[in-house]
Amino acid sequence: MGVALVLAVALMVTISLTVLVVWQVTRGQSGMIQNRLETYAARGHLSGQERRPRKTMAGQLDQALRKRTYGVRLSDELAKADLQLRVSEFVVLSVLSSVMAALFSLILFTTPVIAFLFGVFGFFLPRLYLKRRQAARLRAFNDQLGDAIRLLVSSLRSGYSMLQSMQTVASELPEPIGPEFTRVVREISLGLSQEQAMNNMYKRVASDDLDMMVTAVNVQHEVGGNLGEILDTISETIAERVRIQGEIRVMTAQQVYSGYLVTFLPFGLSLILFMINRPYMILLFQDACGLAFVGLALLMIVVAYVVIRRIVRIAV
Predict the structure, then answer these.
(1) What's the rounded Cα separation, in Å, for the pair 284 and 114?
(2) pTM of this prediction?
(3) What topology does CATH give the domain 138-237?
């Protein structure tokens, strides 16, 4: 009873720390934004010391992480998912998620091995959410890209320039493609070349269909040509690809959900058996042979999930 009380208190402290970190991060971002606005407003009465941005703990940790390959790669992943988080914030949330999952499992099962497994899962849980958000955003972007290109073609044939056509797309289409074109227009207005702004959008989205459009626009900008006709052809290609991908998703939906069932069913059954007959299941984690079988089972589950995903993933 005493151990459970200590674990419950530790869990509450971890939750409180999570809330405190989120509040501090939000407060630090507000100060940073205010300092940037004051700099661009060119308020003459501010001294150099006052204009210097405040260094927060999150900012210092973010700078340290961005100097490493892991931080650069994670920053790109956050941009692709359109998550307004720093690298340091995402790492802190991952660590807190791991600690909370481990403490929660200790309260329920009081078994260090299970707590370790829950802690590992809790650490990668934000990354799983990140990947799913990226996939959903990319799918929505690809579904809208054909309409965006057709709107670009119509605007160009009406006599608009490329920048005005992109402004039309930015104002007429919803998320996620509308804000992306808004960002492209804003970057061009701030001095970036059209090629750089389009390439930046491709880095944030990483869509094969967008790559075709960006390549066509950049080539036409360099050598000239009928951009409307080129984009019209690309639009038809993208529309056909989206149609085929939709048919593939429908035909492979049963296999995809079968993969989810095969993956999560052993964990669900193990949890139910653990709650029904804890002394029977705890023996599996108190012996070296039992731990070896648990590790082998986890390995086989992961392999089965990967194989099923590779089978149903058909490239178009």
Answers:
(1) 11
(2) 0.73
(3) Receptor-associated Protein (1.20.81)
